[in-house]
């Protein structure tokens, strides 16, 4: 076996070992759950929604998905304007400050829309379902703060 062949085999073995290490690492140490995952699980699996609630929830979620996507696109556009302002001013000048302020407005609108969506979902629930939903909302909002 030539030295070139050995080097190629070593590189391939190292690559395979690295990929294997990533898979083992993810299996042994899964990343933290995304905020809102438990809320979704509570709504769709633990509250035993009736057919009417399920249908109304599906409609709310579809409507919010469109609204959220539009607001996220607005945030991306704001970030692009901020990048242009930083590139032009190379510091915290008036264009940068204006771009930051504009992005904060979009962030606020996304947060308000998300809260409105949460409250709309809560309105679908029966009184015996709201306590568990409320706990999941609080947990989703405070998990990263702990």
UniProtKB/TrEMBL annotation:
Domain of life the protein comes from: Bacteria
Keywords for this protein: Membrane, Transmembrane, Transmembrane helix
Keyword Transmembrane helix on entry: yes
InterPro entries, sorted: Metal_resist
Membrane-spanning ranges: 7-29
Stated name of the protein: Periplasmic heavy metal sensor
């Amino acid at each position: 076996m030539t030295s070139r062949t050995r080097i190629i085999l070593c590189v391939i073995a190292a690559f395979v070992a690295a990929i294997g290490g990533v898979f083992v690492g993810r299996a042994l140490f899964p990343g933290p759950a995304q905020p809102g995952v438990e809320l979704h699980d509570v709504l769709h699996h633990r509250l035993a929604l009736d057919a009417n609630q399920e249908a109304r929830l599906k409609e709310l979620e579809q409507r919010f998905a469109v609204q959220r996507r539009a607001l996220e696109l607005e945030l991306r556009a704001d970030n692009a304007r901020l990048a242009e302002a930083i590139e032009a001013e190379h510091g915290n000048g008036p264009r940068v400050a204006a771009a930051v302020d504009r992005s904060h407005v979009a962030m606020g609108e996304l947060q308000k829309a998300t809260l409105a969506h949460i409250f709309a979902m809560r309105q679908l629930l029966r009184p015996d379902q709201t306590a568990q939903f409320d706990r999941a909302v609080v947990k989703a909002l405070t998990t990263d703060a702990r």
